[in-house]
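Researcher: I'd like a candidate sequence for this fold, 147 residues long. If you have to choose between options at a position, lean toward the conservative one.
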């Protein structure tokens, strides 16, 4: 089961980055619908949220029952300066983060997938559940790019 989630995470990353790269530079900064994020904002958000998810996974592997801090994606565009950022660098960050985490996670012992962290809003979560949430997050934003 966990190897399948890891495979899905890696596949979703490749699909997301492939799709992101195919978006025309002429349209990447325009919003597909009124009031929604532009493709660039979705790509930057994915790079930033990957950093959060990576910290969660690393902490869960190295600390007993660490606190998992939620993030508020609504403040990211302003606080993390989305308008001036490079889409290419965000895509590269997504790819590098995925490769880094896959390299680590493919070596995790079966029992370590049950290591837990305590999310401030969701309660106790396992390493496996965090990877599944990470993968679902990626797929959700891939669907947003496709719209």
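Model: Candidate sequence:
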């Amino acid at each position: 089961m966990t190897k399948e989630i890891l495979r899905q995470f890696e596949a979703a990353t490749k699909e997301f980055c492939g799709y992101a790269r195919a978006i025309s530079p002429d349209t990447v900064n325009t919003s597909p619908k009124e009031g929604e994020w532009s493709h660039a904002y979705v790509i930057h958000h994915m790079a930033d949220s990957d950093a959060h998810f990576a910290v969660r996974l690393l902490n869960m592997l190295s600390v007993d029952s660490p606190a998992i801090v939620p993030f508020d994606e609504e403040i990211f565009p302003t606080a993390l300066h989305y308008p001036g950022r490079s889409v290419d660098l965000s895509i590269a960050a997504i790819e590098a983060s995925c490769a880094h985490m896959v390299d680590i996670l493919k070596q995790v012992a079966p029992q370590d997938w049950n290591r837990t962290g305590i999310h401030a809003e969701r309660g106790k979560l396992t390493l496996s559940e965090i990877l599944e949430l990470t993968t679902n997050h990626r797929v959700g934003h891939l669907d947003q790019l496709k719209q």
